[in-house]
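Hi U.,

Before I forget, here's the chain from the pilot set. I'm dumping it here mostly so it's searchable later in email.
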Amino acid sequence: ISLTEGGYGFPIESSELWEAKMKRPNGTAVTVKASNADVPVRYETSTSGNTETHRFVWDPISTGGADVFRVTIELKLNKLNGEWRWYATTNVPDGYRLSTLTLPKFSFSPQGSGSDDFFVAPIFGGLIVKNPYSGIEENTLAHPGLVSLQMFALYDEPSGRGLYFATHDGEGYKKDFTMKSAGGKLVWTPTHYAPIPTPSTYTVPYPL
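Structure:
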């Protein structure tokens, strides 16, 4: 999946768009990813007013035997202000417990050489990294915790273009943020923790 807004393109690898970690009724762990779901993704689009909705559905996903799992991801684009938000819903097999849902995996490309791009992260009192496309080792940090806020930014200083991305959660749900440089890009991924016990239909309770 590739999105472009305001001249800034940021590819999102659809093969790694989401990852779910669950436990079967017998306690054994199972991990399902978009890349190994073994089912074609169904794509639907609709428009209501100024909102354009892109829906991606993986169904049915086998988790072993007759048990099946379903993932629905919606991307809503506001055509007036260019804002985009992600929503995710899962349907969990009976007796399973969903531990975490990781999505989306953003892979940001540099503007030009990237030497005058900056990544802003709310780690401790705040962190600014110049040319974040190389040199950032993989780190997974928690919020609430070492990540004091849930908002991040990436911007190109000469052009003044930038991106703001965040989890819009006002209730303080536990989540992790993973950041790293990889393949000449900046990778940013949030992981969301499901409640215990997991309801048969679980929706991440905030947009991304």
